[in-house]
TrEMBL record:
This is DNA-binding response OmpR family regulator. SUPFAM superfamilies: C-terminal effector domain of the bipartite response regulators (SSF46894), CheY-like (SSF52172). It comes from Fodinibacter luteus. Residues 126-223 form the OmpR/PhoB-type domain. The lineage of its organism: Bacteria, Bacillati, Actinomycetota, Actinomycetes, Micrococcales. Residues 126-223 bind DNA.
Length: 237
């Protein structure tokens, strides 16, 4: 497995800690922010299992880097930083990061969280699942309505995939948080925001209503009824 490690200025010690946590588990390609463009070759992008950005207490440059990396790759993305501020964590998650780790902290916890993201980056081998006119392809990471791609963010896609893959039951908030965001309770509000955005995008594309809330429990998949439209197989022009 290949991990891209992007070290912002003054974060070399944090980067060293990440390298130590991933030792014996992944090949780490280490670079700095000014050189990240040259490091992101097509070959590297196709082989990436995870991206880690390290930053000191000044996170403005790191947020820019994370936004650019999220556009370039769908690999799991983590921000490891010296900032304990909640506003920085919320901003990082909203911009597409899959995890936010504040150091110093437990090396064992850091290793566990890095390995959990690595496992997500391997690819789950899940099958294509249909819900009404909506098709979810976990391998291609695409959501299509009557063959037309719906532009979902990483977290929105993961939420849609969780619901469509569990059509016969209510998916608890805890399970959604654990699978999509690593189970951290600070993401409760972020979960609701992403669910609402995902639902709106699929409805706007003529798809089914996805993600009906079950108060005090979680979300159910919804109803497979789609807006009237021409029925086409996924991928058709």
């Amino acid at each position: 497995m290949v991990v891209l490690l992007v070290a912002e200025a003054h974060s070399s010690e944090l980067a060293d800690t990440v390298v130590a946590a991933l030792e014996d588990h992944a090949h780490v390609v280490r670079t700095s922010t000014p050189d990240v463009g040259e490091a992101l070759t097509d070959e590297l992008l196709q082989s990436l299992s995870m991206i880690v950005v390290t930053a000191d207490d000044d996170l403005e440059p790191a947020h820019r880097t994370c936004r650019a990396l999220r556009v370039a790759s769908s690999a799991p993305l983590a921000l490891v930083t010296a900032s304990p501020r909640e506003v920085d964590e919320v901003m990082a998650l909203a911009e597409g990061c899959d995890d936010y780790v504040h150091l110093p902290g437990s090396p064992q916890v850091l290793r566990a969280r890095m390995l959990a993201l690595l496992a997500r980056g391997r690819g789950s081998g899940e099958r294509v699942v249909d819900f009404g006119c909506l098709r979810i392809d976990p391998q291609l990471r695409t959501a299509t309505v009557r063959g037309q791609v719906v532009a979902l963010t990483r977290h929105e896609f993961d939420l849609a995939a969780m619901l469509v893959s569990n059509q016969r039951r209510v998916v608890s908030r805890h399970e959604l948080l654990d699978t999509v965001w690593g189970g951290r309770q600070s993401h409760e509000h972020v979960l609701d925001v992403h669910m609402s955005r995902m639902r709106s995008k699929i409805l706007a594309a003529g798809g089914p209503r996805l993600g009906d809330p079950v108060p005090g429990v979680g979300y159910r998949v919804g109803h497979p009824t789609c807006a009237p439209g021409e029925s086409r197989p996924p991928g058709a022009a």
